[in-house]
Structures are given as structure tokens and as C-alpha cells.
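Page 42, continued from yesterday. The earlier attempt failed because a stray header line got pasted into the input along with the sequence. Redoing it now with the clean sequence only.
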Amino acid sequence: MSQHPSQLIEQALAAVESGQQLLNQSLSFVKRNCLNEAGRISASKLDNYQLVSYDLAFSAAELTGAKCMVDYAQKIRASRDNHSELQIEERITLQFCAEVLQNIRGRLAPRKKEFGLTRNDFIGSLDSETVQQFCDEHLSTEKLVELGQLALRENGRTGDYVLEEDKEIMRETFRNFASDVVMPLAEEIHRHDLIVPDEILNTLVEMGCFGLSIPEKYEGLQPDDQEDNMGMIVVTEELSRGSLAAAGSLITRPEILSRALLAGGTEEQKQYWLPKLAAADPFCAVAITEPDYGSDVAGMKLKADRVEGGWLLNGAKTWCTFGGKAGVLLTLARTDSDPSLGHKGLSMFLVEKPSFDGHDFEYQQEGGGKLTGKAIPTIGYRGMHSFDVFYDDVFVPDSNLLGGEAGLGKGFYYTMAGFSGGRIQTAARANGLMQAAFEAGINYAKERKVFGAPIGDYQLTLVKLARMATLLTASRQFTYAVGRLMDEGKGQMEASLVKLFACKSSEWLTREALQIHGGMGYAEESAVSRYWIDARVLSIFEGAEETLALKVIARTLIENAA
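This time it went through. C-alpha cells are written below.
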């Protein structure tokens, strides 16, 4: 007698918990081996476990995603309890959980001693008869082919999004805008490395897109009494489906600046700047990274010297996205030259400049200061342009020191506050990109014939589509679950986990969409070639994959291990 779908989902949860048990055991082992005499984690000892930490971080991300998928399937079952058959959302959940468990086993089992594990530990968890039966059943070729056929019939739909009514309206609105306005322009922007055109920018301004992270009392769209990460996630996802660089990333910079202002700005600064940011007047950019310092914010060297009425900034910044078009640059600078202060010697400035549309700019201040920028040629993520920016005695008035005198030395903390939503937003960008690539793969699999049959009829193509549907759905529901946590003031660790998972998934999924297209996928005229190239940047910005896995996720998990 076949099992009821709810029983299968319960089996999935039990199997996932056995993987969590193994992960917890390994985290405790690493912690014991990395403590110093004071009972704290030793950075030098932990560096001896970099590969182990990296694998544990990815395992933690996948397990957390699997739990989110189980919760998602249970919500679907509760809303459709009159159905005895497995729904597409439940099929995807079962396959994803089984795949996660096999991935974790593949990482840990070959080097079990390095993870502090024994053969018996695996026999009692991932290698138990019940877990292996679960994985064997839901990773069978037959089940994968069935899911692939279902994905073809659904034309890229992978199940209910389970969104609140207002968020569903937002999703539909911005999806239509992405399809009707962004997608027809995206290829030309990419091919000719153009700046984002006014057809996109002006409409998004009118739609209030740039005020998503700004409270209503400052003329934004966010409720005054709570954050609305879910609104930002849904909008970002749909715009990224249209184009990652020409639409999906446009609201990232105003979000960072508005969060930094809300965290540390004076009330006068909030009243002045936040309504301007909500109206995209001016557009803004973020100048944090320096040529010799990427994720190591504490090592920044661009200096700010106090002068009468303000500060003079000297130095260089790099990867300042939208730096030409922007009329204000959120700039992190060293206001105290004492190197022993590290991040405590940094402050944040709002550097104003004219807007420029080209690939380079030069702004000469009346007092003699000069700000120049040159766009960095990149293989993808074109449209917004990322700049090298040079500050030569650039004057910034005292009123533009974030937080005023009370903000001196707090630039690092304002940076962290500004970037707090960046990771979850990057996961949303990855989801939108994956959705576009998945739809393209589905359409081509139906249309293209090889050896007398559509390539979508072949077993291997169907298996690819099944795995693509699974990763996309898991990444989306993982992102939504974390967004809801963040709206409750929680979920910072989960945001790092989903960023790690979603960005890695997008690289694989866009690669497979390109592969389905064969030679046409490698042609520049094909949108999937752009999706694949654009996906590559996601694991680099908003926390490079390695830094995120080792310095943020693994370290925190190990410190908190029992």
C-alpha cells in the first residue's frame, strides 16, 4: 500500500534531522580542537580546518534549506488536504531532501576522521537503512523523469509561491514590468555595455521601487513600525528575472544607504536624505571596497583629514557600482590615522557629485578638489557599470559626516547595518536569474529537435529539468522563509546561509540552461549566455563565497556548537 504524502514528508524531515545530528557532532569536534587557553576559538587553529569548515558551511546551508522545504510542503498539504496524490511542491521537497543528504555524505564520508566522525556515526545516521531507502526511492531515475515531465507541462512553474496577497500583487506587477519593459532592452544593454536607460529608471521611480527600504514617515514604502524584507525580496526577484544588472540590482544601493542612515544618521540627515533616496533624486552608489582590501573592511586606507567646515578625502575606491550615474557616494574613510584602532578609526561620508552617463567621469570642485572615475570592463553584470574612483582633496562638509560628531569612528558599524539586507537580496537576485534561465531551458527543450525528437523527450534532459526545478524552488522558498524571519528581527545567520546556497545554485542552473541550448547557448545573441555570465558574479559580491563560508558561517556555527 502506498504511503500518504504527509507520511513521506515526515520521513523527509526525519532523514534531514539525522543529517543535522551528524553536522552538529562534527561542529562540536572542530570546536574542541580550536579552543585556546582562554576557552575561545583560536583563529590560527581554525585556519587548519578551512576545508572542513567550508564543507560544514555548505552542509549547514543545504540542511537549513531542506527544513524550509519541509515546512513549505506541509503548508501546501494543509491547504490541499483533499488531494491524496503528491503535489509538485511535495515531489520537489522529497527530491531536494534526498539530494541534500547525499551531498552531505559525499563531503563528509571520504574524510570522516577530519570531521571527527567514525563509520558507526554514519551507520547511525546517513547510512542507516531508513535514510538510504528514502534516498534510493526519491533519487531514482524514474522519479526524476516524472518530475522533469511535470516541469515541462507546467511551462516553468514549480509550484505555489505561498505569498501573502499584497506580496503576490507586487510580484505580478513587477513581473509584468520585467517582461514588457526590461527583457526587450536587456540584451542590447549587455551586448553594447550601455548604461541603464531612462525607460527602465523612470518607470521604477514612478512605481516607488527606490523607497522599498525607507519608512513611510520619510516618504518611502516601508511601514514605520517594521521592516519589509519580503517586499524587497519579491520585487528584486522579478526585476532580476528581467535583467540582473539593468533592473534587479538597482534597489541594492539605496537600500544600503537608507539602512546606514536609519542606523546612525542624525534626524536632520534622515529628514533630508531619505525622501531624496526614495525618489531616486539623486541616485546613489556605495564606495567601500579599496584596491588592496575587499572583505577586510578594517584595513581600509582612504583617509579623511579634518579642515575648517569639513573634511578632505584622499585615496581610491574600487567596484563602486553605478558610481557614474550616482549623485551621492556613501564613502567609508579613515578619520583616525592610528593603525592600532583598525575598524574603530573609520567613519562614513556622503560625497555629493553630478550625475554622469558615460564610462568615465571627472568632477572638479570649486575649492580645487577632484573626483574622478573610470568604469571597470567586466564579462557580465553590465548596465550599471562598476567604477574605480579616485579622491583628490575632495571636500565634504561636516553636515555630510554620517551621524555627525557622534558618528566618528562608527563607519564600520554603519557599513554592517547598511549591508545587513544585502545577502538576502542577493539570494533574491539569484532566484530571479534562475527563473529566467529555467524558463528559457524549458522553452528550448520543447522547440528544439535532435535525432527526430524534441530534446525535452530525452531522459537526460528531463533529469536536468527536474534538478533545475528542484534547486530553483528550494532556493526561492529558503529565501522567503529567511525574509519572514528578518521581518521579525531575526535571521541574520540564515541570510548568510541562503546567500551561499542560492548563488552557488544559480551558477549550476544557468550552466545547465545554456547546455540544453547546445551551440546556440554559447552564442552571444542567446539570453542564456548572459544569464550564465551574470550568475558568476553572485558568489563574489555581498560577501565572497569563501569569506562568507569560513569567516561568517562556519566560525559562528563552531562558536555556538555544544
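Notes: Residues 346 and 420 are 18 Å apart (CA to CA).
Reminder to self: strip header lines before submitting.
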